[in-house]
Amino acid sequence: MTHLSTAIIIKGHNEKGFTLLEVIVAISILTIGLLAVASMQVSAIRGNATAYGITEATSWASDQIEKLIVLPYDHADLQDTDGDGASGLENASEATDDNPNPPPAHGKYKVYWNVAVDDTADGTKTVNVIVTWTDHGIQKRVSIRNIISST
Fold first, then answer.
1. Predicted structure pTM score
2. Dihedral angle sign, alpha carbons of residues 30, 31, 34, 40
């Protein structure tokens, strides 16, 4: 019986738990995983901020389009004041847009619009609303185009 109790004691004595090396490896793997998750979080936050900026700018552009399409066809805001026609639809500066007044500013967003008159018999005007803003030093823009009929 002494043999049996000695064997049980020896077996229990051999189970020492984790070694220091095993703990260091486990902590290293956990750290790498946590850093990867943190990196993904930063990327997701930046993506959300960019999406927010685009959504906000699109909302301002859509709002301006709605204001313009209810105006009479010959309203001053729907004239090609600089005469550049379709080639000037993408211009987005105070010197080159067709706004009779300085562009409305909504916080960091500036709203411009340009008009091109179609001289053919159908009598339409193409209106392009451009919203610009600066995000982390980078100039960004969103534009929405609409065709307004004379009828």
1. 0.71
2. negative
* pLDDT at residue number 11: 54
Whether residue 56 contacts residue 135, with contact meaning beta carbons closer than 8 Å, is answered with: no
Q: pLDDT for 45-63, tens place per residue?
A: 999 999 999 999 999 999 9
Summary count for the chain: helices (H), strands (E): 2, 4
Q: Which residues contact 98 (CB under 8 A, 6 or more apart)?
A: 79, 80, 81, 82, 88, 113, 114, 115
More confident residue, 26 or 136: 26
Helix segments in the chain, DSSP class H: 2-14, 20-69
pLDDT at residue 6, rounded to an integer: 55
> Minimal CA–CA distance to 86: which of 118, 54, 133, 51?
118
Burial group, residue 133, by CB count within 10 angstroms (0-12, 13-18, 19+): buried
- Rounded distance, CA 125 to CA 75, Å? 12
Decide: 102 and 116 in contact? Cβ < 8 Å: no
- Rounded to an integer, the average pLDDT of 114-118 is 87
Residue identified by tokens 């189970």 is 15
Which pair of structure tokens corresponds to residue 55?
Answer: 């959504």
